[in-house]
Amino acid sequence: MQHLPIGVFDSGVGGLSVLRALLAQLPHEDFVYLADTAWAPYGERSKSEVEQRSLQVVRYLIDTHHIKALVVACNTATAQAVELLRATWPHLPLVAIEPALKPATQATRTGQIGIMATQGTIGSDKFKQLVAKWQGERTVRIQACNGLALAIENALDGKANPDGETVESLCRRYTDLLRPFANQEDADGIDTLVLGCTHYPFASDVLQAIVGSAVQLVEPGVPVARQTYRLLQEKNLLRPEKEDAPRGQLTLLATAAHQRLTMAAHKWLGLDVIAKSVPI
Ligand code: DGL
Fold this sequence. Notes:
Elements: E1 6-10, H1 16-25, E2 31-35, H2 47-65, E3 69-72, H3 75-88, E4 94-95, H4 101-107, E5 112-117, H5 119-122, H6 125-134, E6 139-144, H7 148-155, H8 167-178, E7 192-195, H9 204-211, E8 216-218, H10 221-234, E9 250-254, H11 259-269, E10 276-277
Parallel strand pairs: 1-2, 1-3, 2-9, 3-4, 5-6, 5-7, 7-8, 9-10
Helix pairs in contact: 1-10, 2-3, 8-9
């Protein structure tokens, strides 16, 4: 079992923000990353659609790639489908992702936290439970960012969304709805902004420029990678880490055309891996 790959999936290229942390934490493991670009974005789909599609994608990773563990690198799929995935494959080690509200509560000094995520994540029971658990005395302002994940994907082809919106115009619109933000002079306002969708770290330069340097952006790639390491260790599924062991193999798969995933992996992670297209 130890030599088998770890499966990672997202609706699109966003999960590469998690894969980046996984490759750093587990350099000798093989990974199969699947971007479900044929069905993206998940954020505006119904719960049952996300559930059924997540089942199909994970079944493919198990049957075709014999994965030893799964990382759900998509907040929306976690929020809508993780219970069903765990119930369907109770023996599959599974690490899921959720908006990093817990670390944000430790980081904030003003006690005001903003969360940007998809409509599917924000509308889920799981998200409501997360906020109820960690909010405490803090103010948590929540913003659904329809179209932003899609705009981040489209920007790879140098395109805007069909309605003309771009990454920048959507980031401005949604952060305006979250204001005020703390700044160097004024310590009132949001000082911690949770990127609750794995696509959003790829807009972090744009977001940081808009909200200012007094606001800390929080995303969970590194904690998810650490959790994956711990889980594999606990199950005795880590590859033996010999000093001269070669780096693991990475397979990139897209359910629609592969070019965007190939390009995103090159641009954002510096990888020269050509993605394959798998019509599932
Ligand atoms: N990257 C995904 C997430 O973390 C979903 C984006 C989408 O497909 O809407 O929520």
